[in-house]
């Protein structure tokens, strides 16, 4: 276990190094990332079912925000909060062709510092079904954590009963209800902000909001900012001295490329696609090539990028690894990487992946990773710039619980998980050109693809064509 993971287990109310990295991306230092779970149903989901889930999410583990420490060197803390974006249900059906246009817009206005950092929304589809989205800032959770949070919220909504949760608003001590803030309430109205400040109940030092729903499971007694700062500086100063004796430290290099000229303020173009097929057929296709479902996934994403015109003979793939030993809602992941060549088949990729999982990416040049938490954000970003970014990202989220296949009485015909990139820089794009997210649920493999390359993959239609071209020998996919 890394030093940072021990710290996370001992002080769950403190941000980890990984949390801090994603917090900086929220501040436009790096590639902005929001995680998104999508549910597609064959019929219209009733508002009551989703209001119940929204209520459970407000008092769940995603309901927290970042608090700055009072002492230099101490780590930022998590503070529970039940503030939330108003549940948004668009009753006007949208065409299936606009499904991802709608979903992509839901990554904006998520704030892990001042809240809310998550959003639940839904819309009707013109085929008679519905699409439901749960989106959160990556600072709050990784992909597996979002699954855990959603599973708990849906389970809680089912247990408490729809009639008990519809229209109910959690109350604070003294009977004052907490408000569910819409966009204008948070960012557009100074009156609403002032009202929410007056309505906030805090502990005697004003550092933590009381949430009666959380009374049974508060964070453990936290250490003081002074003791945390002393611990951090002790680690940083000792580790830095050892690193310097070993040859010094250098900032990581990050490859970025300018976009074609489109005028100032234009956002970089991202696009996505979601497909699924039976798990048995996917696994059979992998075995026939000497690989696994995971190595077939990496092979497919890499070859889609080559088919889009990527010029290199080698593609470097970033592979997130779930490091949690219990179901926690946090960023409990590490990164590793492999180099994929044009001649590699799923069997060879399987061998490379097995070896790579034994070695994880570390802090630059042997420096203690805690240094990224005690130095200014911009300097920390320079030291960690490009951390985890390679030509492609292949995130195997793994099996999802079958409980996610239903939203109240409504069965889902598809459940997907992916990352989106709200507010990606207009003039510079990250090194990563294509991201893939794989999960299994209800007997199906679900593959989500997100392109960050507006030159090679300029639209969702092109992305689907490339998937069809490369995936021809594979089992036929059902496209969302």
Q: Quick gist of this model?
A:
The protein is of the alpha+beta class.
Mind explaining what this structure looks like?
The protein has 480 residues and is an alpha+beta fold. 32% of the residues lie in helices and 22% in strands. The protein has helices at residues 3-10, 17-26, 47-58, 99-104, 143-160, 162-165, 183-188, 190-199, 225-245, 279-288, 293-307, 346-356, 371-374, 377-384, 460-470; strands at residues 34-41, 64-67, 77-80, 88-94, 118-125, 130-137, 257-258, 271-278, 314-322, 333-341, 392-399, 406-407, 410-420, 428-429, 434-441, 444-451, 478-479. The strands form four sheets. It has a seven-stranded mixed beta sheet with strand order 10-9-11-15-16-8-17. A six-stranded mixed beta sheet has the order 4-5-6-1-13-12. α10 (279-288) packs across α11. It is globular and about 60 Å long. The chain starts with a helix and ends with a strand. The model is unreliable at 1-9, 162-221 and 248-266 (pLDDT under 50).
Topology, please?
Layout: H1 3-10, H2 17-26, E1 34-41, H3 47-58, E2 64-67, E3 77-80, E4 88-94, H4 99-104, E5 118-125, E6 130-137, H5 143-160, H6 162-165, H7 183-188, H8 190-199, H9 225-245, E7 257-258, E8 271-278, H10 279-288, H11 293-307, E9 314-322, E10 333-341, H12 346-356, H13 371-374, H14 377-384, E11 392-399, E12 406-407, E13 410-420, E14 428-429, E15 434-441, E16 444-451, H15 460-470, E17 478-479
């Amino acid at each position: 276990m890394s030093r940072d993971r021990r710290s996370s287990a001992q002080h769950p109310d403190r941000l980890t190094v990984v949390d801090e990295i994603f917090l900086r991306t929220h501040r436009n230092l790096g590639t902005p990332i929001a995680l998104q779970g999508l549910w597609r149903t064959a019929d219209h989901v009733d508002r009551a079912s989703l209001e119940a889930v929204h209520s459970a999410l407000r008092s769940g583990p995603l309901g927290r925000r970042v608090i700055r420490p009072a002492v230099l060197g101490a780590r930022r803390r998590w503070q529970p909060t039940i503030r939330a974006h108003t549940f948004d249900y668009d009753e006007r059906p949208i065409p299936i062709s606009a499904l991802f246009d709608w979903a992509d817009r839901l990554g904006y206005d998520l704030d892990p510092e001042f809240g809310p950092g998550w959003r639940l929304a839904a819309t009707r589809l013109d085929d008679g079904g519905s699409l439901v989205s749960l989106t959160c800032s990556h600072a709050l959770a990784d992909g597996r954590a979002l699954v855990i949070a959603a599973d708990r919220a849906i389970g809680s909504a089912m247990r408490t009963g729809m009639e008990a949760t519809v229209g109910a608003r959690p109350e604070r001590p003294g009977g004052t209800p907490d408000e569910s803030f819409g966009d204008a309430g948070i960012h557009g109205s100074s009156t609403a902000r002032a009202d929410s400040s007056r309505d906030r109940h805090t502990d005697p030092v004003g550092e933590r909001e009381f949430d009666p729903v959380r009374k049974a499971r508060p964070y453990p007694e936290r250490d003081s900012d002074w003791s945390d700062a002393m611990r951090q500086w002790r680690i940083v100063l000792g580790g830095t001295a050892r690193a310097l004796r070993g040859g010094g430290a250098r900032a990581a290099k990050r490859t970025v490329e300018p976009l074609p000229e489109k005028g100032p303020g234009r956002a970089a173009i991202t696009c996505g696609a979601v497909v699924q097929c039976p798990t048995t057929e996917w696994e059979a296709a992998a075995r026939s090539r000497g690989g696994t479902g995971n190595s077939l996934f990496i092979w497919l994403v890499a070859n889609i990028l080559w088919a889009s015109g990527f010029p290199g003979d080698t593609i470097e793939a970033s592979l997130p690894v779930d490091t949690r030993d219990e179901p926690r809602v946090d960023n409990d992941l590490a990164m590793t990487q492999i180099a994929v060549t044009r001649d590699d088949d799923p069997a060879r990729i399987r061998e490379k992946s097995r070896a790579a999982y034994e070695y994880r990416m570390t802090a630059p040049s042997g420096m203690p990773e805690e240094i990224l938490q005690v130095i200014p954000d911009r300097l920390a970003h320079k030291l960690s710039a490009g951390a985890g970014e390679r030509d492609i990202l292949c995130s195997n989220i793994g099996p999802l619980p079958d409980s996610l296949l239903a939203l109240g009485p409504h069965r889902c015909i598809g459940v997907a998980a992916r990352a989106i990139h709200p507010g990606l820089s207009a003039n510079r794009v990250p090194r990563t050109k294509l991201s893939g997210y794989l999960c299994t649920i209800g007997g199906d493999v679900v593959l989500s693809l997100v392109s960050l390359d507006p030159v090679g993959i300029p639209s969702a239609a092109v992305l689907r064509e490339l998937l069809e071209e490369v995936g021809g020998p594979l089992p036929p996919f059902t496209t969302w």
